[in-house]
Amino acid sequence: MDKETMLASLLSIETSEWDREKRYTSLHEVSAYSLETLKSKVAHAPFRLTYHIQPPCGLLNDPNGFCYFNGEYHLFYQWFPLGPVHGLKHWYHVKSKDLVSWEDCGVALIPDGHINSHGAYSGSGFILNDSLHVFYTANRRDKNWKRSCSQVIAKLMPNGLIETVNDAIESIPPEYTEHFRDPKVWQEGELFYAIIGAQRKCDLKGTGVIYRSLNGKDWQFIGEINTQLTQFGYMWECPDYFCLTEENESFGVFIFSPQGLNPTDDKFQNIYQSGYIVGPELNLPNLTFSHGEFHELDFGFDFYAPQTTMTPDGRRIMIAWMGLPEIEYPSDKDGWAHCLTLPRELTLIDGKIFQHPVKELQNLRKEVIFKGYADDKSIIGRSAHFELILSDDSTFDNFELALFASDPLLLNNKDSAIEKLTVRYDSMARQVTIDREFAGIAFATKYGTTRCYKLSKPLTHIQLFGDTSSLEVFFNHGEAAASLRHFSAVNNNAIIWQGHKTSVTLWQY
Ligand code: FRU
To answer: Where is the Glycosyl hydrolase family 32 C-terminal domain (predicted)?
Structure first.
């Protein structure tokens, strides 16, 4: 069967039927007509989001190449175009003037060269000689399916495609295994640095490796970042290093996504984690980074592989994949998977990262559905695409907030029958809980259906962003954040408050 014929039936196949041959099909091998057919089927699929970045079809994962260039933010993402599986990775491109309305620029990187024949993995963006350049991991496999990779510098051309400039790091230094990927570039004065996720050969543990360049094209290995986390998972994916200022002092922040941590108490509940360590700026000559504890960035169910960039006005912005590897999602059967989180501004308070949804999100506010006080047990409003802010003049008492809930009036107030995604607060324990046990189609239940977080101060403020099949919640102005997908029935859009009197504003998005 030729690939085109095989692909004609793609939308109806089960994830398990995606064999290696199907997964390694490039966009070049399918006609524009087949792709359009896939896209139009996906466009009519349930659970499509309304204001998040999502793939037109196929699977989205990590955000890549995030940078500001010539008055616009450019963002790419890992994309397997043809189905909801991890196959031959392409890069898809979107751009924006305000970080919230994104223009679709189509596919930017089709892995069709000898250098990236088996996929263009994650990487970052930077500006060189007035052009947007990227540094990414190019994969190859031999006849025996043995993988090799190199780290490639490439450039966004006027035709919208990313083309290879040079194979900057052709081979992996001998101390590391083939788990070596995801270069993230930063600049210090005239010099360029990059940190790459790696696995040591000596103990098969994860780490980050640093390179330096004078011209952005030729890179020299300088060594491994020297942290206290020497035995912390088997691989660190998607590293990112940058500085944040607190009280006029600059600190280094190192974000990475470790794989292989065991769950403990409320921590590390997802299949893989993403978090950060903070300390005095990385000492570049000897690569020592003295830092505090590793903190997870987000305690929700679906958050991975974040990447940051800096705005022209000096804000550090992070976007992540609102999904995780190796988990089947309910949208898979409709031929698409995943979305990105909303952009968040990062600040440092008492050495911890706070995350604030970027102020530009206010551009998405449409009418106010409700502004006033919610009391006792009340329906605040009905919406599946909203921003909701709850604040208490003093501090919150115990409450339960049900979102994407079925209408209790239609159910004769029988709570047990209500479908809902719940946010709860226990004021004694200062603990917030997200519970998706009763929220639509169950998935990833092997990893539990609740996530908890103990706040450092009593709760006074909550900001929530709901979209058809996603929810992002920020507690106490960004002390804690939780991101998750949910697959609730279309008509389940009631927002129900159960608790003491509290001030509420609800906007339609
Ligand atoms: C993280 C990751 C990266 C890799 C990419 C492949 O989700 O595994 O390490 O570059 O995804 O799609």
So the answer is: 378-498
